[in-house]
């Protein structure tokens, strides 16, 4: 099975208390399959803070044309998180997708810990 390298940029909204220290997860869906739910390990203590853009590189099976993106967190610390966008680039083909969330994820803020959007 062919694998692809996807570079992912997760943008946290620049709103008061919009960042989180919880564990963040992502799942990508495409015309040729989907990933498992994948943990995005924070590269440092400033990851997923308000106004930040965090970059991750995933090597996963080729998903074809991306159609949907789901993100969430486990509410272990500073559970409210304002996710603005997720941008995904297929490093093999330079195709790029932008998933716009512009919403809170958190028990108190939104009553849910995850959300999915279509591209």
Structural notes for this entry:
- This protein has 119 residues and is mainly β.
- It has one domain: Sandwich (Lipoxygenase-1).
- The protein is built from one helix and nine strands; from the N terminus they run ββββββββαβ.
- It has one helix at 107-110, and strands at residues 3-12, 24-30, 33-34, 38-40, 53-61, 66-73, 81-90, 96-105, 114-118.
- Strands 2, 3, 4, 6 and 9 form a five-stranded antiparallel beta sheet that branches. Strands 5-1-7-8 form a four-stranded antiparallel beta sheet.
- A hairpin with a 2-residue loop joins strand 2 (24-30) and strand 3 (33-34).
- The longest helix has 4 residues, at 107-110.
- The mean pLDDT is 95.
Sum this structure up briefly.
This protein has 119 residues and is mainly beta. The chain has one helix spanning 107-110, and strands spanning 3-12, 24-30, 33-34, 38-40, 53-61, 66-73, 81-90, 96-105, 114-118.
Number of domains: 1
Can you count the beta strands?
A: 9
Output the CATH topology. Answer: Lipoxygenase-1
Fraction of residues in H or I helices: under 10%
The outline comes out as globular
User: pLDDT below 50 for ≥5 consecutive residues: which ranges?
Assistant: none
Query: SSE order in H/E notation?
Result: EEEEEEEEHE
Oligomer: single chain
Q: Per DSSP, what share of the residues sits in E-state strands of 2 or more residues?
A: over 45%
Largest β-sheet summary? 5 strands, antiparallel
Q: How many helical stretches?
A: 1
State the name of the first-level CATH class. Mainly Beta
Distance between the termini: 25 Å
What key phrases describe this protein's structure?
54% strand, Lipoxygenase-1, four-stranded antiparallel β-sheet, five-stranded antiparallel β-sheet, 119 residues, 1 helix, mainly beta
